[in-house]
Amino acid sequence: MKARIVTLPGDGVGPEVTAAAVAVLQSVATHFGHDFSFDERLIGGAAIDATGEPLPKAALAACKSADAVLLGAVGGPKWSDPSAPVRPEQGLLGLRAGLGVYANLRPLKVHPALAPLSPLKSEKLHGVDVLFVRELTGGAYFGAKTKTTDAATDECRYTVAEVERVARRAFELARTRRHHVTSVDKANVLETSRLWRRTVTRIATDYPDVTLEHQLVDSMAMLLLTRPDAYDVVVTENLFGDILTDEAAALAGSLGLLPSASLGEGTRGLYEPIHGSAPDIAGQHVANPIGATLSAALLLRHSLQLEAEAQAVEAAVSEALQHGPYSRDLGGDASTGNVRDAVIAALDHHAVASDAFFTGMRACG
Ligand code: NAD
Ligand code: IPM
Ligand code: MN
Q1: From the alpha carbon of 275, which atom of ligand 1 is closest?
Q2: Against a cut of 0.85, is the pTM above it?
Q3: To the nearest whole percent, how much of the chain has pLDDT over 90?
Q4: CATH numbers and ranges of domains, the chain
């Protein structure tokens, strides 16, 4: 198939991990006979430096007409002065809102070979398979802001419609998994959380085959560490989802491993690793490209409907994590390129094996 993919490398390690993920997608295109075109655009600090805007109009327009968008990361110390008139992160928020991608899927699995790197005991990690569904275009991120010299406010606002659509997405996804949804809020304190809980509870009646449980976010932060295997789909509001998923990434062994897919109503999606621009290691070519590469796998699955290709990338990543080489965050000394090459070698190996299989089938038939 033909597909148009916009890439937004951004800042810090963003360009390093995005280049690795694009190389993997190119390898997929070769092996499976697809024609992927890549259109690189500016976002974040790089866009501010070049144009004064964190999300140039042309970049947003290109994203809106693409089949999918693959993003690295935005931000960094250069653009972090609290008095700066514009910040890289505004570009990312504008992109999420502009594309209407309200459901941010952040899957967490722990590769057995990496369990020793987790701060939890290995036996606690057995069977951990959580899909976080983070609301992405509402809440405190998008509410009205005020600022004077001695006070500031960020309004947290949710409408019933905003909660309904992300809740439905979570229940639909649970139907493809273990049929359990945990909704996380702070309903003992926040009015938005009471609206959230009431709405999720009502939507649940349309999904009698899915069980629903509610957890308060403070308690959930603890439960993720004490019984991470108890969760299937976890749905929550924007800020809680941001915080809980960085915590969850630590269970997997590194923040550099987790991917995400941000989806709205159509098939077009935004795909990005959950980590940031990692200024402490940027430019050294040691960033782990696995989060970005698994995001590319989610792109194949959710925007291009290429399930076999998505699984091939996930299997290749799994094989690379089984044998190494490992990047620095995983205790090794491999470069970003070494890890990319290991994933591509595993893809090649599987493709050769399946070509031989099909050739064998033809010979038999
Ligand atoms: P960060 O995620 O950039 O880094 C946190 C820690 O994790 C650092 O020690 C970093 O080296 C490590 N890390 C992150 N990604 C890694 C990778 N792929 N391989 C190996 N190690 C990795 O978070 P931060 O330092 O708090 O934020 C830095 C900047 O990134 C900020 O400007 C922030 O706003 C931005 N940010 C952007 C995104 C995004 O673009 N989606 C996400 C988070 C943070
Ligand atoms: C993420 C990041 C972003 C967020 C920032 C950079 C705006 O932390 O994608 O998790 O908070 O959503
Ligand atoms: Mn985050």
Answers
A1: 2
A2: yes
A3: 95
A4: 1-102+265-365 (3.40.718.10), 119-252 (3.40.718.10)
